[in-house]
Amino acid sequence: MKLFKLASLRRLKKDEEGVTVVEYGIALAVALGIAVTAYSGLADKVETQLTDAASLMTGKTQ
Description:
By secondary structure, the chain is mainly alpha-helical. 89% of the residues lie in helices and 0% in strands. It is rod-shaped.
């Protein structure tokens, strides 16, 4: 039993697949955070432009 545990720990130590998945997960989370930040800033600018255009078309000024 003790040898089985020791062998399992050695295999686990050499196995880097789980580490790679975690690294990709972290990279994906960072990329998504950057994308959300960029798109939210862009959305605010687009909304402002559309509101200004609608005001000009209806003759209303702010």
